[in-house]
Amino acid sequence: MLVAPPCSASSAPLLLARAAPRLAPPRLALLALPTATSGSVWAVAAVSGGAAVAAQLGLVALLRRAKGRPWLSESPGFVAHQAIALVFMAIATAVGAAAWLSPAGWALEPAARFLAPDGTTRFLAAMLFGELVLWDLPCAIWIKQLRRPDSLLHHFAMAAVAFNAMALAPIYYGVFYLGLIEASTLPLNAHEYFAHAARTLESLQPGALPGAERLLRRFRALRDGFQAAAAASFVAVRGVLFTAVSLRRFYPEVAPLLASPAAARLRGPLWAHAVSVGAFNALQLYWLGLLVAYTVRNGVGGERPD
């Protein structure tokens, strides 16, 4: 387990001084955030993945009984996946935002945000790693609506990033990249569900379901509303905030450490973090360009294209 760089006796006082918290008093009351240790991360991952699998199986069995509600009973695996994913992303967003906005992390010197293991990052990474490997990836393979090559590649890449943050380099910035940033996923998740619901009702024969037209209007309105919210949040969170934090905070702080003797044993994992942040940032800016082009061409509303 790589948790701390080696240091000589002569350099230890200097490193400790650099990593010591500043003595400025906290401006906000700190919340008791969930954390994990190097010894508990695998248990957290197992519980997370096991709970997701159990919830998937239970919800699918329940949704299949929802006769007269085809938007639930048809494709129950997809509907269950969307509900469970919404819970995981809400937890990640809430925990990540609370940790990111807390003054505790910013009271540290920049080097300590990378060299001192962050327990909340470990928790988030372990939670996401477990649900990705045991539940989300299998769902993406077996559920038709989720079976897209880009989605599978994204899931594998996220699992690798989560493993790095869980087991090798649990840096403070993990609470942002694995937590707060998922805020933009919440309206997208809801949009995908209501797009499925509207599509299901559109496929019914006229008169097959009493009140179908009223429900269809409602589902279309919710689909379009969440599509607009998803687009706005993607621009704000994935386009602007992700890029700003990466360029103004993450890279200026990690760059000096990549060649520093203080980070010798963590150099590989830190390089992996640096490369993954850059790759995901470039991918999201590409997606942002596609989103802007689609919106200019088709306007707001409708179903998000794959």
TrEMBL record:
Its main location: membrane. It holds the Pfam family TRAM_LAG1_CLN8. The keyword Isomerase does not apply. Residues 80-292 form the TLC domain. GO terms for cellular component: membrane. The keyword Membrane applies. Keywords: Membrane, Transmembrane, Transmembrane helix. The chain crosses the membrane at residues 41-63, 83-103, 123-143, 155-178, 226-247, 268-288. It is found in: Membrane. It is a multi-pass membrane protein. This is TLC domain-containing protein. The lineage of its organism: Eukaryota, Haptista, Haptophyta, Prymnesiophyceae, Isochrysidales.
